[in-house]
């Protein structure tokens, strides 16, 4: 069987050949892996920068999509349920979610993790949202930020504001009705944020200086709360400077959302809804599929860093 592993944390994964899998244990099923996406989590694991990946060699994958060749049913393979940089996996049946017929396995592999980021934030990290709540998505033009739009709508959002650096991309999201309004992460951000008025929820994929500016300039009332949730750090800045007066002067709560801030049981409970939504979304243009056999060549390319790489164990 062919598979890919990180042999050392300063090297890309290598395409290898080894013995076939043993027979599935009781409660397991063998799946032929169709697609496994290279999420930011996967990239961090491959570098040994995530708590779940401390020693090499290892398969840095997190989730995937596979088919039961006996029945033809396609499944989403839950996070860390199996090492999916491989042609076949044995998976516990309770870690599988059936994918509706007609859904694109590559799109589901690419989008389930991004969808889960905002879904878990809204289901587990905020509370008591008003009807038709307003949400500001910081980093809305990235893959995860874009999927936060249909997630927020499904959770009942009445107004979605997008924030990003690329104004042309923001204008396109307004033009197609995806978002209602936008602000640009530029030198006018403080004024633009102040002009928004109250926002019920902030889902932040960027962090860094932009987040500090938004939290400082945001206008909140004394009777309504703004719930801020950090989900990512696109800015690659893990710290911000926030004046204490900002926290004392506003009805503001700060939290984060990722595995660790909610339980595995909560994630397992929510995953059927997450997969169902991901299966309805079209494959974004920035999703790039490659055969798993080319993993070492494509791993550190600009394309892999700037787009969303999906590896296909059986090629395409």
Automatic annotation (TrEMBL):
InterPro entries: GroES-like_sf (IPR011032), NAD(P)-bd_dom_sf (IPR036291), Zn-ADH-like_protein (IPR051397). Gene3D superfamilies: Medium-chain alcohol dehydrogenases, catalytic domain (3.90.180.10). This is Quinone oxidoreductase.
């Amino acid at each position: 069987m062919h598979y890919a592993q990180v042999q050392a944390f300063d090297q890309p994964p290598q395409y290898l050949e080894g013995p076939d899998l043993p027979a599935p244990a009781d409660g397991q099923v063998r799946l032929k892996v169709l697609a496994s996406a290279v999420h930011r989590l996967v990239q961090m694991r491959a570098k040994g920068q995530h708590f779940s990946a401390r020693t090499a060699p290892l398969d840095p994958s997190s989730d995937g999509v596979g088919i039961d060749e006996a029945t033809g049913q396609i499944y989403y393979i839950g996070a860390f349920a199996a090492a999916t940089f491989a042609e076949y996996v044995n998976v516990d049946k309770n870690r599988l979610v059936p994918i509706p017929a007609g859904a694109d396995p590559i799109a589901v592999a690419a989008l389930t993790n991004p969808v889960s980021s905002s879904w878990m934030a809204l289901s587990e990290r905020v509370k008591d949202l008003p009807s038709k709540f307003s949400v500001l998505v910081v980093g809305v033009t990235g893959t995860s930020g874009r999927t936060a739009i249909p997630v927020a709508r499904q959770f009942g959002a009445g107004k979605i504001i997008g924030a990003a650096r690329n104004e042309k991309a923001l204008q396109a999201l307004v033009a197609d009705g995806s978002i209602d309004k936008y602000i640009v992460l530029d030198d006018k951000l403080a004024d633009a944020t102040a002009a928004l008025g109250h926002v019920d929820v902030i889902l932040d994929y960027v962090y860094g200086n932009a987040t500090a500016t938004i939290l400082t300039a945001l206008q909140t009332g004394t009777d309504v709360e703004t719930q801020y949730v950090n989900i990512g750090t696109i800015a690659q800045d893990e710290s911000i400077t926030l004046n204490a007066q900002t926290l004392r002067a506003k009805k503001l709560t700060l939290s984060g959302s990722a595995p660790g801030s909610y339980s595995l049981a909560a994630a397992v409970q929510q995953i059927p809804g997450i997969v169902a939504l991901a299966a309805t979304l079209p494959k974004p243009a920035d999703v790039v599929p490659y055969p798993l056999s080319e993993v070492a060549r494509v791993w550190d390319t600009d394309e892999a860093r700037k787009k969303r790489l999906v590896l296909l164990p059986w090629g395409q």
